[in-house]
Design goal:
Strand order of the largest sheet: 1-2-9-8-4-5-6-7-3
Helix content: 40-55%
Distance between the termini: 41 Å
Number of domains: 3
Low-confidence stretches: 1-6
Number of helices: 23
Number of strands: 17
Bound molecules: phosphoenolpyruvate, magnesium ion
Mean pLDDT: 88
CATH class of the largest domain: Alpha Beta
Radius of gyration: 26 Å
Shape: globular
CATH architecture of the largest domain: Alpha-Beta Barrel
Length: 590
Amino acid sequence: MIEHTKTSAMIFGEVASSGLARGPAVVCDCAEEVTVPRRTIEASEVPQEMKRFDAASFAAEQDLLKLQQQVQRGIGRQEAGIFEAQRFLLHDPLLREEVSSFCLAEKINVEAAVDMAVKKLTSVFVQVEDPYFRERAADLRDVGKRLLDILTKSQLPAIPIFPDGSVIVTGELLPSVMAQLDGQTIRGLVIEKGGQTAHATILARALGIPLLIHVPDATKTIRTGDHLIVDGLAGRVFINPTPTIRREYDRLEADLQAHQTALKGLIDLPAVTRDGVAIKLCANIGKSADAVVAATLNADGVGLYRTEFVFLVQDHFPSEEEQYQIYRTTADRLKPREVVIRALDIGSDKQLPYFPSPPEANPSLGCRGTRLLLAHPEILRAQLRAILRLSATHPVAILFPMIGGVEDLLAAKAEIEAAKASLAVEGQAFNPNVPVGAMIETPAAAIMTGRLAQEVDFFSIGTNDLVQYLLTADRTSSEAAGYYEPLHPAVLQMLGWVATTARTKNKNVSICGEIAGNPALTQLLLGLGFRSLSVNPGEILEVKNAIRATSISQAEHLAKQILELGTIQEIKDCLRALSAGKELRTEAQP
Ligand code: PEP
Ligand code: MG
């Protein structure tokens, strides 16, 4: 969508890494296709061509290893795993098979065969509904481009060098190019394609570079040298903005900087309300870079370690030892704070490429989370043993996702006991009293809070899923988005009920769904009875700011008022009225 004003143009995109960036545009094709030479060969030449493929594959492996080490040093171990996954794609027997059969069937040289094989395999990826798979197509194209660069001895520089302070505008950004932007002073990125969970996006976030994706025709609308303002908060790009727009953004930038500086002043202050009630403010993490940010921002611990990322960046189930090492590295970064490690939560919208779930008509109502782990105890056991071994030296807790009732929990706890027994037989140390928690993500679990409390040490409410199941509105569907509403009175009533019930049973209850990270809702959540929140690292300071501006008595009054309302609109109006007149304010800016 392009909206032209008299003097400047504005185009829209989706925020994938937030922030504000300004600078001259460099329009390029970072996924530039190599010109693929094509010639006809005799069948007898195929073995020779495949030898060339193997040699190129070996050279590509060396390049990827180097890149992996570079990213590990510069960004983090788990981000480096992206290139380990690319090495697996490179060595996927299917790729070699496809190349060889194209050589044979089409009687073509290996370069042309690689090109056709990669196009064929990526076309399969992009048809898959799951965005995770779709976005792996970029990884495969990246691998294919590397092979073709080697085979054609392309003279193109492997690392594009951009002028300092530029904003890169490109059709697609491959992870390997993104990784190599580390060290260059790129201000922002505007991409026509891309995805929220694409590896290039993950790297941009880790590097703190604002990124807009799905910006249609960006490379046609923007020219190199255009002055750009990338608004990675609202999702728009101004091309050659007018002086009035520039002044607006000067002001916004100054406000943001002042706010950020003021927020930084909160890092060492406790998350305590105005009337002196301490709130436990933890971080949700998925990869090692998050753990570093969480520690830097002084989170009280990790309330949710989503271990899916550990499994997603591999092409096989990580062994117990591999998992132990990864969890230990993460826990080391946070020590002595507690890390709540969630057992692998796959199924439905979270799939592992190497563990495809059998098709189900309603996967979000099917075999997922703890159910799936109980159906595949070998996966659960390896993970529990890894976590238990870590519990000997680090304060960790185990959290089970998607608990449906007491039966799930008893079966999962029996697996913990079995894992403990096997470690004891081997003489391996563990904490026999490692805390165990249940996620409240299903209405059934919420209703059973009182009984489940007899079985666990703590609860964590996953509102992302609880909202979808309570309101029967798919969290991944844009059609159902209007019905997926965390401020629905039924959701708030249920949250209040769980908080009160858990408290009467003397069990800690935290919220780790996205709702907890919205500072506009902090007062309401405290009023509903929550004293523990777990939020994305980037939200910690904003939420702490909101906690420190709240008094529990006022918060309880607000919650009481809101629980009496019957519609979403009334609730929103009430919250809006509350925030009206409130400015972006922190204590450091009296
Ligand atoms: C949730 O459902 O709120 C939650 C935290 O789990 P996830 O988003 O990983 O499903
Ligand atoms: Mg969930």
